[in-house]
Input
Amino acid sequence: KQWYQRRVRGYVGGALYSQLGGRRWIRQSLFGASFFPGIVCSNSFFVNFIAISYHSAKAIPFTSMIAIAAICLFIVLPLTMIGTSFGKNISGTLEPPCRINPVPRQIPEKRWFMEPRFIALAGGVLPFGSVFIEMYFIFTSFWAYKIYYVYGFMLLVYGILAIVTICVTIVCIYFLLNSEDYRWQWTSFISAASTGLYIYLYAVYYFIFKTKMYGLFQTVFYFSNMLVFSVGFAVMCGTIGYVACRIFVYKIYGTVKID
Output
């Protein structure tokens, strides 16, 4: 399963990078293969070293840490590069929905709330609002050791999150394009991915007011794991938002008739 997922990730990343005009595919492949696994491994190593210094029972043997790093280096990385190579060669070309001016047009000045930076930050508020109540119960099951058993409701909340993320991101990109700003790709991803930022801020609130953790080891263990959770959540929401906006943009510009 691991090798299949790595090749699929590499294939999708390579195809998308080539479709967007990228040429440094080796750097893209290395970044894609090491971004999230690198965060997880570095977080695990850092927490584990602190656990060893505290003689904690949760400490992982050093040989296991080396084995995890070897898996990422000798299995994940080569499979991702193979998938990237297939992706850029097989699906690396994409016809634009309409004729595109080869010279980028100057972006006109606009109000501050129409800037991509503000849209990127504001885009995650509503998706976070759709899940923050459920986040309380999930955090409680993680850190208060209470049993979580409403998985059906979690699936419903995930569906609501996906729908809200799609709708909000499309609206944000519509306003961006309406202001004659064509920089929608990264804006669509970051505006949806900013949900992870609010998740992490909520994790800070939860740590201060809802937990009884103290000391260096517990603090580092909590915030490092919540960082991995928030980054994964951000990547998931950003992917949903980007795919939805890509379909939306290609749909509306596909109907444009240019003589």
Summary: The chain has nine helices and no strands. Confidence is low (pLDDT under 50) at residues 1-5. The two ends are 49 Å apart (CA to CA).
